[in-house]
Amino acid sequence: MLVVGDTEIARRTCGALTRQGTRALHLPQPDDQQLQSALTDEVDAVALLVRGDVIALRYALLAEYLRPGIRLVVLLFDRTIADQLLTTMPNCQITSPADIAVPAIIGACMGDPVLAVDTASSPARVISGTDDGIDTRAWRPRHRVRNVARTLAGQIRPHDRTSRLLLTGLGGLAFTLLVEWLLATLALHEEPLTAFYMATRIVATVGPGETGHAPGWYLAAASLNMLLGVVYTALFTAGVVNRFLSARSIDIVGPRIRPSRDHVVVVGLGQVSLRLCMALRRLGIPVIAVERDPRAANLRLARSAGIPVLIAHAQDREVLADLGLGRARALAAMGADDLDNVEVAIAALAIAPRLHVVLRAGDNAVISETRSLFSIGEVCDITALSVHAVVHGLNGHSPRFVYPHRGRIVAHPPAPADTGAPEAADAADAPEPGSEDATLVSSSSVRCGC
């Protein structure tokens, strides 16, 4: 087997192939001549595990040119490039860490006994662990009436300073309009339509019109409401202008409102986080993402997918408190940095001790040291899950995703007996954390990952 790539997935894949007795050749960053020299007749399959979809595409085309029809396993995030590559080279297996790991991450967010949720099938399928093994059933979405009620309840709720200014100004103007209409109707005995006209004039700060028969207290109240109207109008205008000029990612009204109950908070907006948010939305589970970089590449995709994104630092306890963690279903810390994920988990558990936390992790030593102090949640090593899927692909099996079960990583759909692919990776066969031959399943995991 030939493994190309200077990534942790590539290094772990070489270690996994070696442990199963397969000869593996690793080329971190080969040029065209090196790749041509390595692609001898002894090579049965090639794994292209590089950073960047364009680089992976170039290596795939070059490998197909040098060895037409050779089995290729390529990690690609961009689905458009993946579809075009599959059309050109049907002998190529396309996958990505996001597609491999998201079903297991959703299962971890749901909690026991759910192991994974297959969102690609129609309808979605829930894979659960039982005393007898593994059970699969159809996903049951939330009741539609309850879903609509929660969506309506979440409308017109402030989520930041701009939205508070806008809603304060709008609410003040509406309250002033109502009070003036009631005063004109009940105190001055005006017709409802005439009273509404007088009220709108006061809100617009142009005066109530003819007031020859109005008592003095009414004129004083109208004057005060006009002054308040100036303040409310300024607040409302400032909020509207700020929202139009800023790249907002959470709406006050509409599908991108901030959820308030039974939702999943996803920290980070990388490829895995974005796919996780989109999968949760397809299941009808409310979700909100937290991203600290206002220039993150996936913000545009999140907006187009209707995913609310809060631009803030998730390590900030004030930010976490505003996300309603006490009423949330789970928090998934999916940042690229393990230490940041641990910090987010600790801060979240300080606010909501019973919160279900799922962490993305790859540095087993860090997670092991932190878990020695207290339980911080379920740990998902996406690299390990990806390695297991790649090894299956090199052996002729193409799992859509993998998930952990009883200390083992299981492929879905299961590998046929004649492919030579491992049925599952066992923790007992893994080397020590931090070694070059990285683990498939480590003792630092709760149930999800390596």
Automatic annotation (TrEMBL):
InterPro entries: NAD(P)-bd_dom_sf, RCK_N, Trk_Ktr_HKT_K-transport. Residues 412-444 are annotated as: Disordered. This is Potassium uptake channel. Keywords: Membrane, Transmembrane, Transmembrane helix. Residues 261-386 form the RCK N-terminal domain. The keyword Thylakoid does not apply. It comes from the Bacteria. Residues 417-438 have a biased composition (Low complexity). Coiled coil: none annotated. One of its GO terms (biological process) is potassium ion transport. The chain crosses the membrane at residues 165-188, 217-241. It comes from Actinomadura verrucosospora.
